[in-house]
Design brief:
Elements: E1 2-7, H1 16-30, E2 34-39, E3 51-55, E4 58-62, H2 77-88, E5 92-97, H3 102-113, E6 118-122, H4 130-138, E7 148-151, H5 154-164, E8 168-170, E9 193-198, H6 207-219, E10 226-231, H7 237-246, E11 253-257, H8 261-270, E12 273-276, H9 285-292, E13 296-300, E14 315-318, H10 321-333, H11 335-347, H12 354-371
Helix pairs in contact: 2-3, 4-5, 6-7, 6-10
């Protein structure tokens, strides 16, 4: 099968969509498919404007232009996209979308125009945009376009369904579960409750809200009852450090910056609880990695994380930040409950592996083909 992935963002940029598009494409390549990636993101050396690169067997078509700040858009790309679709004649065009994905939506529009099977997968929560997008869809051809719609979780899919009034499938993010398998020995008990969070330090991930959650939980406990390592970097790092300092948490919260995957594994091996403060989390790949590592995940119930964490069985799901603070304090006060959740998290592995993701993608590709009569 010849598959063309279309994404505004791709490596060497880092992030959820970038990682998942690359890993999905690699898994499909390993399964015997011919896989191409079309992106507006420049290459490692700034390659763009139609340059084709080999990424470990993947053919990556870099269609970005010379845009300030290397934004992943390209006003001149539509013509080149049309030419590429005519040349490749893909069996399916898999478009990866966020709330704002101008390049990906150009790709979807042109693919529909040339009659190719199209699957659009949303990697985001559309909260706050549903009404506006729904009105836009009703005023345009997208209301009747022969496009298969999907999202990375059931929670995200429900928002997409509200926009389009159409069936929406699920193509979950995948991961190598064995790479994140817990070690044979659980982290030692005793001492402070050791927490970890892995995130891009950006407003949408709510890093400062996480600091407030920890401060509120610490206020309910004796001094020294909690520690938190925050892994990741981004534009809000300085403001988060100031929030830590103002809350008097310098001995409790450590911002470690961006770390390599091996260091993430080490951090998880020594931690007990993973904190996920985001409320607009369509899937939560970092939380899934932590869950696969045997950590007790504490997250918001309204997110995609609820699809692989079961409340009071292998993790804790809450409705708001105040409840998250209370739940964290309770885990610190009740070591027997923590041990029960840890044991279940370690023994009952999540099911979101690449085999399942590939199967889900193939099912949606078949649906996209049927919509155009193939």
């Amino acid at each position: 099968m010849r598959i063309l992935h279309v994404s505004d963002c791709y490596a060497p940029r880092t992030g959820g969509i970038e990682t998942q598009v690359r890993d999905l494409a690699r898994a499909q390549l390993a399964a015997g498919h011919e896989v191409h990636v079309l992106t507006a993101t420049p290459g490692p050396g700034g390659e763009r404007g139609g340059v084709v690169q080999d990424d470990e067997g993947l053919r990556v078509h870099r269609q970005g232009g010379h845009i300030p700040f290397d934004l992943p858009v390209s006003p001149t790309a539509p013509g080149r996209i049309r030419a590429l679709l005519t040349e490749l004649r893909p069996d399916v065009v898999h478009v990866h979308a966020g709330v704002l994905s101008p390049f990906a939506f150009d790709g979807a529009r042109i693919a529909v125009d040339v009659g190719a099977p199209v699957l659009v997968t949303w990697h985001c929560m559309l909260d706050g945009t549903v009404a506006g997008m729904r009105a836009a869809v009703r005023r345009t051809h997208w209301a009747t376009a022969p496009v298969a719609l999907s999202a990375v979780s059931g929670a995200a899919a429900r928002r997409v369904a509200e926009v389009f009034d159409a069936p929406v499938g699920v193509v979950p993010n995948g991961m190598d579960l064995e790479r994140w398998a817990p070690g044979p020995v659980p982290p030692p008990a005793g001492g402070p409750l050791r927490c970890v969070a892995t995130m891009r330090l950006a407003p949408r991930k709510r890093g400062r809200a996480l600091v407030r959650v920890l401060a509120d939980a610490a206020a309910q406990l004796e001094p020294g009852a909690l520690t938190l390592d925050i892994l990741g970097d981004g534009p809000t790092r300085a403001s988060m450090q100031r929030a830590v300092d103002r809350a008097g948490l310098r001995e409790v919260v450590r911002l470690r910056g961006r770390v390599e995957r091996a260091q993430v594994l080490e951090a998880y091996a020594d931690a007990q609880v993973f904190l996920a403060p985001a409320v607009l989390e369509a899937f939560g790949i970092a939380a899934l990695e932590a869950r696969a590592s045997g950590l007790v995940v504490l997250a918001h119930r309204s997110t995609g994380i609820a699809e692989f964490v079961t409340d009071d069985v292998d993790g804790v799901l809450v409705d708001d930040d105040a409840a998250m603070s209370r739940a964290l304090a309770r885990l610190a006060r009740e070591p027997q409950r923590l041990a029960r959740l840890q044991e279940r998290a370690r023994s009952q592995r999540p099911v979101q592996d690449w085999a399942g993701t590939l199967q889900a993608a193939q099912a949606q590709y078949a649906r996209a083909a049927r919509l155009v009569g193939r």
